[in-house]
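Appendix B, example 12.
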Amino acid sequence: MKFRKAVREDVPAIIEMIVDDDLGKLRENPQDPLPKEYYRAFESIDSNEDQELIVVEQEGKIIGTMQLTFLQYLTYQGGIRAQIEAVRIHRSQRGKGLGETFLQWAIDHAKERGVHLIQLTTDKKRPEALKFYEKLGFKASHEGMKLHFK
């Protein structure tokens, strides 16, 4: 099993995992070929040193993904925090401990970058995800809010 930054050729496998849940299939467009917007987004993420689109590869197949964003702040004496988003594990690999291993890798990786805090959000419609993150030590310490435009 290998954790690495995603490359352009990984985008279809990443989108396949994002679409493979009740919420993802409502907001994504997995047509073949993929819309160019996905590739533009990948290029933007890939060119930004504070963004990392990470995949888990096993035997040449992408079986997990997440996006890490490193945010510089003035608070916490100019601290850096990591934001974890879009965590997905391929359906065939769920329940095998890969999610926990992947998140621990992300935590260790963020610490290496000098972060003082790691944060993430999870949709309230995913109670099993909330339990999973709590098991890893994350605490629901703040109330988040979003303003959608589409």
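The first strand starts at residue 2 and ends at 5. The chain has a mean pLDDT of 93.
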